[in-house]
Write a structure and sequence with these properties.
Largest sheet: 4 strands, mixed
Order of helices and strands: EHEEHHEEEEHHHEE
Structural class: alpha+beta
Radius of gyration: 17 Å
Number of helices: 6
Distance between the termini: 53 Å
Number of strands: 9
Length: 225
């Protein structure tokens, strides 16, 4: 891969960050409270899921552990996809090899320096985001959160399609479409007249009181009765 200059990468990251907090990718030396991503500590992930379950439940008490794990994983996936897809649409892919994160709302992402590569194709992003980050993170959430494999990749695909809400540029649409044609995202959903529709459910409808269905949920297309 051809490296981009620090100045070029920094300009793109600054432009992308203006799209919103989910698109921000900070740069700078490691600081206290920032952890390597993908997360490798099952105890830390279990505690995050427990805390998230309490916050989702509000005054009703914690939601189911599996429901909280699913929604938390999708939130992290959205934070990974958003700056990467938006930057790639501008021709630059951030180098995520030394990525750090700080759990929160939204989760903070940080690189030690503005390093990156020229965007080449969707397989490049699949290697950098899916294989290096979402796959090991998904394995952690499957083990700790008891999530099914199809749900994990459905959440990853939903988070990817969600990047188009804030950046509906043609290059980004092409990148997202190409990624959805690659394993392990192939078959997780498709674009219809109402937008992207996934073939699995993130379980948000089980958040009390009446969490409802997400706009891309497969359950919306089920016939009544």
């Amino acid at each position: 891969m051809r490296a981009t200059t620090p100045d070029q990468t920094a300009r793109v990251l600054t432009e992308v960050a203006a799209l919103g907090p989910y698109y921000a990718l900070e740069t700078g030396p490691p600081a206290p409270g920032w952890r390597p991503l993908p997360e490798r500590d099952p105890g830390f992930v279990a505690a995050l899921i427990d805390d998230y379950a309490l916050r989702l439940g509000g005054g009703s008490g914690p939601v189911e552990h599996r429901v909280a794990a699913s929604i938390l994983f999708q939130s992290i996936a959205a934070r990974l996809w958003s700056p990467v897809v938006a930057s790639a649409a501008l021709g630059v892919v951030p180098d995520l090899a030394a990525l750090r994160w700080r759990p929160g709302s939204p989760h903070g992402l940080r690189l030690p320096a503005p390093a990156g590569f020229a965007y080449e194709n969707a397989r490049q992003l699949r290697d950098l985001v899916v294989d290096a980050h979402l796959r090991p993170l998904g394995e952690m959430f499957r083990d700790v959160g008891k999530l099914a494999d199809g749900l994990v990749w459905g959440n990853a695909a939903s988070a990817l399609a969600g990047t188009l809400v804030a950046r509906p540029a043609a290059p980004a649409r092409g990148i997202v479409g190409d990624l959805l044609d690659l394993e392990p995202l192939r078959g997780t959903g498709a674009f219809t007249r109402r937008g992207f529709v996934r073939r699995s459910c993130c379980l948000y409808y089980r958040v009390p009181p009446g969490g409802g269905l997400c706009g891309d949920c497969a359950l919306l297309d089920r016939p009544e009765g």
